[in-house]
Amino acid sequence: MKNRAITMLIVSAVALTTGAQGNYTVSGKIENAEGKKAYLIAGNRGEIINDSTMVTNGQFTFKGTLDRPFVAARLIVGPAIYDNKCMWEMALEPTVLNVVADYNNPEACSISGGKLQEELDAIDSEMEVFLKPLGKLNEEVRKTANRDSLISLMEPYQKQYAEYIRNFYREHTNSYFATRFLNMDMSRMPYDDLKAAWDALDPQVQKYGDFADDIRKELEVLAKVRPGSPAPDFTATDINGKPFTLSSLRGKVVILDFWASWCGPCRKSNPHMRELYDKYHSRGLDFVYVSDDDRKPEAWRKAVEQDKLVGEGYHHVLRGVKWNRSKCMEGIDRSNDISDKYAIHFLPTKYLIDKKGNIVCKIDENENAVIDARLETLLNE
Question: What is the pTM of this model?
Answer without folding.
Answer: 0.84
